[in-house]
Design brief:
CATH class: Alpha Beta
Strand content: 5-15%
CATH topology: NADH Oxidase
CATH architecture: 3-Layer(aba) Sandwich
Structural class: alpha+beta
Strand order of the largest sheet: 1-2-4-3
Order of helices and strands: HHEHHEHEHE
Bound molecules: flavin mononucleotide
Shape: globular
Length: 187
């Protein structure tokens, strides 16, 4: 199998319950971010915007998420505890944002697609460096409150969080429900 084929097939969602809790060098995180910046875009809009949370900043993020959850859904200790475990186990958490450009010829959808490509680049790079990573979305991530917290403007979007940590031993087994042949019309 070609090396790239292996990297693509073996990249996995590795959630924080499978992280050792060890810190990762910022230098490696920069490698992920640089890979993200090589994603293609229509019109070179480069709409991805990231905020990296590590160390003390993770505690601020946790507090913000707990407060927002309490405001929107009512305070819930079980959810707070789960969130704390996820954030504590992660070395870095990168918020994923989309900065809407001013070129009206580029639809928003294309900017969103480009951000997803940037995340895939980060994810493949994380995997090739032996790091575990996970894209988490959900209710709080998509709120205006979260968008403002990330200093994104009204036309921008908050698209979730990329959790990163050192994985414990084995990666989870990958699966796909249907083979590619069922999703392709070849004429
Ligand atoms: C845009 C996007 C959002 C995701 N959000 C979540 C999420 O909120 N919770 C979750 O458990 N997994 C989430 N995932 C991860 C998927 O569950 C995971 O990619 C899928 O199960 C396939 O596993 P694999 O990444 O190991 O191939 C998300 C993935 C993508 C691409």
């Amino acid at each position: 199998m070609y090396m790239l084929e292996q990297i693509i097939e073996n990249r996995r969602t590795v959630k924080p319950d499978r992280y050792t809790g060890e810190p990762i060098d910022d230098e490696l995180i920069w490698k992920l971010l640089k890979a993200a910046n090589w994603a293609p875009t229509h019109g070179l809009t480069e709409p991805w915007r990231f905020t990296v949370f590590s160390g003390e900043a993770k505690k601020e993020l946790l507090q913000f998420l707990n407060d927002l959850d309490a405001e929107l859904n009512g305070s819930n200790e079980v959810r707070n505890e789960k969130r704390k475990r996820m954030i504590d186990a992660s070395s870095h958490i990168i918020s994923i944002g989309m900065k809407r450009g001013t070129n009206e010829k580029i639809p928003e959808l294309e900017e969103l697609l480009a951000v997803a490509m940037a995340v895939q680049n980060m994810w493949l790079m994380a995997h090739s460096l032996g790091l575990g990573a996970y894209w988490s979305t959900g209710q709080l991530a998509f709120t205006d409150e979260m968008r403002r917290y990330l200093k994104l403007d009204v036309n921008d979007k908050s698209l979730g969080f990329f959790y990163i940590g050192k994985p414990i031993a084995d990666l989870p087994k990958g699966k796909r429900i249907t083979p590619i042949e069922e999703k392709v019309t070849w004429k």
